[in-house]
Design brief:
The chain is α/β, with parallel strands linked by helices. It folds into two domains: about 210 residues, Spore Coat Polysaccharide Biosynthesis Protein SpsA, Chain A, CATH 3.90.550.10; about 60 residues, no CATH class. The protein has ten helices and eleven strands. The strands form three sheets. A six-stranded mixed beta sheet has the order 4-3-2-5-8-7, with helices on both faces. Strand 2, helix 4 and strand 3 form a beta-alpha-beta unit. The N terminus is likely disordered.
Length: about 375
């Protein structure tokens, strides 16, 4: 274990070099594959079906267009990646960090500062020498109720309290994010930048949201359709929001009605509520189905296609790539590329996973 990793394991942050590149510029923030495929190819079963008919483009604020080349967009931010030590998390973290460093080395990455994998498993793992890591404790046994994501806000609380973070801003990220371009700082001073998710709909659950965001605080529309990631936010603001986020997450999980309604996105709703309780709305940059203006690929959904390149969402395709197929091991090297007709975003994702796996040592061992 190198000195930085030992330091991280003992409670101090390990840092990446001070040059980085990655995420969004003036066009797009993130791709969620099958969501966009459903929007543009037609409706179907599955999580994406509810998005049919919705306009997926959120207008870019005028100030952001005007400031496209300004110094304000080059203020450095620290990438904080929350993760577990499970094999499923490890291989995604390795791909993510590989491309973070590649984007960091390109022109335009001036805003990307340090990088920390915030490991909430309570002990060092096999990636300590490869990825700058800060080890924090998981919630007490049983407190997460089998919902491992509940450890994320608690991890941020600990990291913010104990680590030395030089940058003024933080990008909260997840293992299934792949950087495809350098990312400028899209936060506008005290206004965070966040990605709007079509399946986070506070206004449709007002009776539940009001348990945590009372009427005297304002309309339910103050609760943005976001999660904690990807979000670029001022560190001083996150230090105030994180404890609220943690407490609201636990309260939601322990409330049977809320838990049943929000399910696997409960922690995302908790962050949205915590942000609103702190009086913060989030700037929502536009996103795009093509890679021309896209800076992060978020491979949250399975990608299933026929050999004719037709989407078969909800049905295992003749060609598929689904991160959930690799729960206990990394994907094999040199994955077969998608057939002709599959969207550029999916082809790019597979090529990027292949490049990372070809260049990372001991890939097949899973570390």
């Amino acid at each position: 274990m190198n000195a930085a990793a030992r330091k991280a394991a003992g409670g101090a942050t390990a840092r990446a070099p001070a040059v980085v590149q990655a995420l969004v510029a003036a066009g797009a923030f993130l791709i969620s594959y099958n969501f966009f495929a459903m929007v543009f190819r037609g409706a179907g079963a599955g999580p994406a079906a509810g998005a049919a008919g919705r306009d997926p483009v959120v207008a870019m604020p005028a100030w952001m267009r005007a400031a496209a080349g300004d110094e304000v967009r080059r203020r450095p931010f620290h990438v904080a990646l929350t993760a577990t030590d499970a094999a499923y998390s490890r291989w995604q973290c390795r791909v993510m960090y590989y491309w973070y460093k590649r984007m960091q080395a390109r022109p335009g990455g001036e805003a990307m500062g340090g990088f920390t994998r915030v490991l909430h498993s309570g002990k060092p793992d096999g990636l300590m020498d490869e990825i700058p890591t800060f080890v924090v404790d998981p919630l007490p046994e049983g407190k997460d109720h089998g919902y491992v994501v509940l450890n994320r806000p608690w991890a941020f609380v600990q990291w913010l309290q104990k680590a030395k973070i030089e940058e003024e801003y933080i990008l909260m990220a997840e293992p299934d994010h792949v950087f495809v371009k350098p990312l400028p700082n899209l936060a506008h001073d005290n206004d965070p930048a966040a990605f709007p998710f079509f399946y986070i709909t506070p206004s449709e659950h007002e009776n539940i949201i009001r348990k945590y965001y009372p009427k005297e605080r304002g309309p339910v529309t103050n609760v943005d359709p976001i999660g904690n990631s990807p979000v670029i936010i001022k560190k001083t603001l996150l230090e105030k929001i994180a404890p609220i986020w943690m407490n609201v997450s636990i309260q939601m999980k322990e409330d049977k009605e809320t838990d049943k309604t929000f399910g696997w996105v409960l922690e995302m709703y908790a962050y949205a509520v915590a942000s609103a309780l702190h009086g913060k709305r989030n700037v929502q940059p536009p996103f795009d189905t093509r890679l021309g203006n896209t800076f992060i690929i978020h491979f949250t959904y399975g990608n299933d296609y026929s050999l004719k390149g037709e989407l078969t969402y909800g049905k295992i395709g003749e060609w598929r790539f689904d991160k959930r197929s690799f729960q206990d091991r990394p994907p094999p090297r040199n994955l077969t590329l998608p057939p002709p007709g599959v969207p550029e975003s999916v082809v790019t994702l597979v090529k990027m996973v292949n490049e990372a796996s070809a260049n990372l040592p001991r890939w097949d061992e899973g570390l």
